Amino acid sequence: MSISELNPPLTDADLPEVYHSVESEVRSYCRSWPTTMAVAQGSWLTDVDGRRYLDFFAGAGALNYGHNNPALKKPLLDYLASDMIVHSLDMATAAKTNFLETFERLILRPRGLDYKVQFPGPTGANSVEAALKLARKVTGRESIINFTNAFHGMTLGALSVTGNSMKRAGAGIPLVHSTPMPYDNYFGGATEDFHWFERVLDDSGGGLNHPAAVIVETVQGEGGLNVARAEWLQALAELCRRRDILLIVDDVQMGCGRTGRFFSFEEAGIVPDIVTLSKSISGYGLPMALTLFRRELDVWTPGEHNGTFRGHNPAFVTATKALETYWASDAFANETEAKGRHVRDRLEAIAQNHEGVSARGRGMAQGLKFAETSQAGEVCRAAFDRGVTMETSGPRDEVVKLLPPLTTTVEDLDKGIDILAESVAATLP
Ligand SMILES: *Cc1c(COP(=O)(O)O)cnc(C)c1O
User: What PANTHER family does its record include (predicted)?
Assistant: First the structure.
């Protein structure tokens, strides 16, 4: 049974001429999905020709609560209609007061996290830059340890701790003061993971400057859905503690409930020194980011890390409402974990039917890895033609990554995975 009508394949040439004549060649997602999107609700996008797409990418993880979530839209519209402050630099506003109080009450205090909150500018890369700067300022050291296949953003500091060679090449200058170490399972589990890192730290001939910080993702989203085991994260946190190295967890993509709990590191029971959050923190796709750090690390002087857009009040309004709606109890996290297990079971079943395909991920960040580099892209393309948007990840784009809104119903998850299964069958020999 075919579960979806096959759309006539769209190509880049189907986009309005202005994308070719005016927008830079750097554009990317409109190449994967070459149609003009018009409206969206929940997990569904509709293009200008009325074609509907099930969104299994969710703004790269910026829409964990779906598009135009009505619970968040109402306070946003009320706020805008009342002429309350939209732009405020980082002046005090009622929207910001509410957000800080709510974040403290619903997220930090119940988890026993004594973090200060910095608004570093509205993107994930802004948050990573602030984290790196702070770690260097606190320790007086310059070098940072990052991991193979890490992704931390596209500004120079964030790129310096990112693995992808194509993205690094875009910097045009040397990316320095960072040293990559093997991520969990980099050697297929064959080598003791911290052997090299610990050894060179100890060895006066190891050539490693004592690092200011280690920056790590608990699940590498862009890096191909590599999942660090809880034991590995615990051992890393312990190593950092013993050697007086700050631990930064980049939770820009895996935070805000993507893996289940609000922070992706909760499951491992570790407490990072510094945490970055962005993507879904506003809850509505509005740009917003936070850098969190242990109170003792707050050595900034006023205005030392400054910026124009660090207080987008409409984002505070939706962020506050998202916390109240989804994070006042454990129910949403439990539901996400259950959905994640369901998605995983279904992906395992698809993998079993096809040689060289394996399931990977954690929580509601799940995917399929393919043996041949081009296959994941072809599967995504076939899925788009059948009405599902999903993207590839991994150093060779060999992984199909599913990031549906966490609010997606099980029925819609099944619908999308049925289409994925059909797309795999249509693509693989
Ligand atoms: C997306 C992402 C970033 C960068 O965020 P931008 O908002 O694109 O600058 C940083 N770290 C991780 C883990 C990400 O997924």
Answer: DIAMINOBUTYRATE--2-OXOGLUTARATE AMINOTRANSFERASE, DIAMINOBUTYRATE--2-OXOGLUTARATE TRANSAMINASE
